[in-house]
Amino acid sequence: MRIDVVTIFPGYFDALELSLLGKAKHKGLIDVRVHDLREHAHDKHRTVDDTPAGGGAGMVMKPEPWGVCLDGILDSAASEAAEASDAAQVPDPDPLIIFPSPAGDVFNQRMARELAEESHLVFGCGRYEGIDQRVFDEYSARGRVRLVSLGDYVLNGGEVASIAMIEAIGRLVPGVVGNPQSLVEESHEEDGLLEYPSYTKPASWRDREVPPVLLGGNHKAIEAWRTEQRIERTRRVRPDLLPRELRGEPRGRHVAE
Ligand code: ADE
Questions:
Q1: Alpha-carbon gap, residue 47 to 39, rounded angstroms
Q2: What is the distance in A from the centroid of ligand 1 to the CA of 208?
Q3: In terms of C-beta density within 10 A (0-12 exposed, 13-18 middle, 19 or more buried), how is residue 134 classed?
Q4: CA triple 112-114-117, angle to 5 deg
Q5: Whole-model pTM?
Q6: What does residue 122 show for φ and ψ, rounded to 5 degrees?
Q7: Residue 153, marked binder
């Protein structure tokens, strides 16, 4: 998978060198290219923002540097697609451009799975009061654009949101996580229940014991205990995620007599 990131703070993305994603980068499973938007601002001060049209607080990102930078990425995607000889390596000539924004669709595990199927994603990180609307309009008219929110709160820009999404998406790319079974067993996968609590050695720590069922070697009993824990935890923390049959609501429609 190819991932391009456009930002005025490329340093944020050094974090992608660490841990599993860093390994995936070095193995060539994920090809991350970070672009400094300021390099595409051609005035003396490399200005990327200006006052809002119509007045108001804050600054808005100017469209010109975005246009130059995104055109360069799209052109390189098209030429790499044309040059690639190995069909499995062909990047998408029509990448999906994601602008992290509190005004977008809320990111979740389902969206991560959907985006992990893409061969080329571009993350455009806005700052200040946002990016000039004409950038979204231009690239929506020419290709695929999505505004995606990390949640109902406001960050200072799209960088942290992009890193979170890249991590959630990247770990679903085949080969990135060593044991694919660990992807199946975690929260928000499969049945939507939260994960069960985990323990390791020692069996007793500060008078706190590992639940005896986990030490008994009865795999059926362990599985039943874990399922029970997942249901109880989901009911307590995120009742909205409980499948209907576990919500304790009447199954059939109530018929008035
Ligand atoms: N930029 C600022 N706030 C954000 C959020 N909640 N999600 C994605 N991008 C953002």
A1: 10
A2: 40
A3: exposed
A4: 105
A5: 0.91
A6: -125, 125
A7: yes
